[in-house]
Each structure stands twice: as C-alpha cells, then as structure tokens.
Amino acid sequence: MQRALEMRRARILQxxxxxxxxxxxxxxxxxxxxxxxxxxxxxxxKENAKKMTATGKAPRKCFCF
Length: 65
What we know:
It is a single chain. The chain has 65 residues and is mostly helical. It is 83% helix and 0% strand. The chain has one domain. The protein has one helix at 2-55. InterPro entries: Remorin_C.
C-alpha cells in the first residue's frame, strides 16, 4: 500500500513538473515575440525622430481606405 502511494505521488509530481515546463516554454515564446515587437516599435519611433530632425516636419501618413 505504501509503495503504491509513493508511486502515485511520484507520477503526479512528474506530471506537475512537465506542466510547469510546458508553461515556461510558452511564456518564453511569448516573451520573445513581445521583445521583437517592442524593438520594432522603438526602431520605427527612432526613424520618425530622424525624419523630423532632418526636415523639421512630422512625416505624413495617409489614412485613406
């Protein structure tokens, strides 16, 4: 009986660890995507700042559909 409980406990603990690892992998992927998005947004802002500094005017954007 005691052996069966230990085996069950070990199996459940391993399932818990596997689930935590899976969640960590998903989170790291989402973190990477967020970092890429942030980097791209910063690059766009710096490019717009350079254009504004060079021309003295804000870049125009067309909102035509």
